[in-house]
Design the sequence.
């Protein structure tokens, strides 16, 4: 296993992970800490198994992971989980050091997709290399201080009171909380990006910008940072094709992820009336990589003939076509959905997602759900896709919130 620097490792230990904002299941009773699974390990194992299968089927298969930044590097939650499982340190020598990069996981992925590097409240506002350098330097300083007995948190936590006015006090407290969450999110992104780049993996970003001007600025910043970004002023996951042609549009043949200069993440096709209309629209584009759902509106699956058509740009040169595979969520519109299914039945439908009607949080530890994912992956490779993009990977954070270790 690769290890990150000691300051970085210490920072990971002292920083709590921000949980996902989703409702808890009704009447939920958390298990004791000793019975809590290591959800990050479960999620990694599923990705490793499916990715290994895809690469066994097709040696040059491209594997990307959207989100899941905590899966790359051992952080505070997994260190705390080990303490809960082994409070007396009986197997202490077998524990991976904090800050270790999970090499078996890194080995099977070809790139990392990060949301909102440039158009979000979590944007760095500076060159990525500078953000990484600043974080490393601060972690080094914090480690030196701790060695001298000075305990300063990695994320600044100003202490109140700030005003004698209760409204102002609440406003300021909320502002500080937002800023702390932003810094923490940036830290986790930096650690993952740093580890991925050290391993030679491509970095992608998906930007939902407010205006075309913001999207143009995001593209320029991404070029500076060597990030392969898709930035649009419309929500990029709704399935609307951009109105403008892609930056760095080219006629070069694309046979590997290292040659890619543009990409189109079309994660659903709800705006198209039919599968044929959807495929025809995609055929008219010149993106180097096209990422698509495997089925139009969740139930009308793309055929091998459809995928063969998509493997060429409008200019005529070959490109890569990847299938999106949601891991931690599913919907009642999917082709495999059965009558009578709902939250808890079957058990892998762990809870409804209150933000999206008809969507459910899935339990990746459940053998039946893992088997279903395996069937989908088999279908993806049988259909002729060039690889897989794992999506909905961050749900382990929600399970961790449900199952605290303290």
Sequence:
């Amino acid at each position: 296993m690769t290890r990150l620097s000691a300051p970085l490792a210490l920072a990971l230990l002292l920083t709590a992970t921000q949980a996902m904002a989703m409702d808890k299941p009704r009447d939920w009773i958390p298990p004791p800490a000793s019975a809590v699974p290591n959800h990050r390990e479960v999620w990694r194992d599923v990705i490793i198994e499916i990715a290994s299968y895809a690469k066994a089927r097709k040696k040059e298969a491209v594997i990307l992971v959207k989100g899941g930044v905590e899966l790359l590097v051992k952080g505070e939650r997994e260190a705390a989980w080990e303490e809960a499982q082994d409070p007396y340190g009986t197997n202490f020598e077998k524990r991976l050091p904090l800050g270790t990069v999970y090499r078996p996981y890194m080995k099977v992925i070809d790139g990392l997709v990060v949301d909102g590097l440039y158009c979000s409240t979590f944007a760095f506002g500076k060159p990525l290399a500078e953000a990484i350098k600043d974080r490393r330097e601060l972690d080094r300083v914090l480690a030196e201080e701790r060695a001298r007995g000075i305990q300063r948190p990695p994320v600044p936590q100003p202490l109140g009171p700030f005003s004698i006015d209760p409204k102002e006090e609440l406003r300021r407290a909320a502002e500080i909380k937002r800023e702390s969450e932003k810094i923490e999110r940036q830290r986790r992104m930096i650690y993952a990006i740093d580890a991925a780049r050290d391993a030679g993996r491509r970095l992608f970003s998906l930007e939902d910008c407010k205006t075309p001007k913001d999207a143009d600025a995001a593209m320029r910043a991404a070029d500076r940072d060597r990030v392969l970004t898709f930035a649009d002023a419309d929500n990029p996951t709704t399935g609307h094709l951009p109105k403008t042609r892609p930056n760095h549009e080219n006629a070069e043949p694309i046979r590997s992820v290292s040659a890619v200069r543009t990409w189109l993440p079309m994660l659903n096709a709800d705006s198209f009336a039919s599968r044929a209309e959807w495929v025809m629209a995609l055929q008219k584009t010149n993106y180097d990589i096209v990422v698509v759902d495997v089925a139009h509106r969740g139930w009308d699956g793309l055929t091998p003939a459809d995928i063969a058509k998509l493997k060429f740009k409008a200019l005529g040169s070959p490109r890569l076509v990847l299938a999106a595979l949601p891991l931690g969520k599913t919907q009642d519109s999917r082709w495999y959905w059965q009558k009578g299914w709902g939250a808890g039945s079957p058990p892998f439908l762990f809870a409804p997602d209150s933000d999206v009607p008809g969507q459910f949080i899935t339990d990746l530890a459940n053998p039946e759900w893992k088997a279903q994912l395996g069937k989908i992956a088999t279908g993806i490779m049988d259909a002729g896709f060039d690889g897989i993009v794992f999506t909905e990977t961050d749900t382990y954070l929600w399970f961790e919130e449900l199952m605290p270790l303290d």
Remarks:
- The chain is about 35% helix and 15% strand.
- The chain has one domain: 2-128+186-402.
